[in-house]
Design goal:
Blueprint (H helix, E strand, L loop, with lengths): L1 H25 L4 H27 L2 H21 L10 H24 L6 H24 L5 H23 L1 H28 L8 H20 L4
Length: 233
């Protein structure tokens, strides 16, 4: 089952990348707008998926500790690697986003592994659909900073392997996985918040006015809210 989960994870992330590449091919000048909308999508994932799931299934104090730790660590790393000439999107943003999704994949793997895994169509479809927005976010940044597409394949392959390995570990250590999962859930929320607020939305302020920026963020958040509501249970 962990190998199958890795496969469907690659598929979902890949679909997101292909969709973004298609948009860039036909509407290349619209990519900065897609980037800001991705910020809204990530806010939607945090607000409508991660946080509700967290409040329902995990200890609030443990998650809060993980979130603060994740945010502070990313803040310190960002301060350490700060360069004044970096005004917009940079390789640093990509690194932060991949790190945040990395933690997210670990907690998802533990969550699916710690419970009984069903080899069902709806289960696998839900995983694929959950991966698509993350694939869109990664590919958008890669296109903006003009890094070769092969890098996208490397990134999604690593993330998918992490997902599968985490599912295997969660399946093997079900009794202790919950404590680890709680802290990692918080860490994922903290790191995603940092990437969204500091790296994506924060660095887009100088390119767009407040109202257009807010509208695009809201559009992305609403879009992911509708998207999540249509996902199979």
């Amino acid at each position: 089952m962990p190998l199958l989960l890795s496969g469907v994870s690659v598929m979902g992330l890949g679909i997101g990348g292909v969709l973004t590449s298609s948009i860039n091919r036909f509407f290349p000048k619209k990519l900065p707008y897609v980037y800001v909308i991705c910020g809204g999508i990530l806010m939607g994932i945090i607000s409508f998926d991660l946080i509700p799931h967290t409040l329902k299934n995990f200890d609030f104090k443990g998650v809060l500790l993980g979130a603060l730790t994740g945010y502070i660590v990313m803040l310190l790393i960002g301060h350490f690697f700060h360069h004044k000439e970096e005004l917009n999107v940079s390789e640093r943003t990509l690194g932060f986003l991949v790190a945040a999704i990395f933690f997210h994949h670990i907690i998802m793997g533990f969550s699916y592994g710690a419970v009984t895994l069903f080899n069902s169509y709806s289960f696998l479809t839900a995983i694929i659909l959950h991966q698509i927005p993350e694939g869109i976010a990664i590919m958008t940044i890669l296109l903006i900073i003009r890094i070769k597409g092969i890098t996208f394949l490397y990134i999604i392959s690593i993330l998918s392997v992490v997902f599968g390995v985490s599912a295997f570990l969660g399946e093997s250590i079900k009794e202790t996985a919950r404590t680890v999962d709680t802290l990692l859930t918080g860490t994922a929320i903290g790191t995603l918040l940092f990437v969204t607020l500091n790296e994506i939305i924060g660095k887009s302020k100088k390119q767009f006015g407040r109202i257009p920026l807010l509208l695009m963020i809201t559009f992305g958040a609403i879009m992911i809210k509708i998207y999540i509501s249509l996902l199979p249970d």
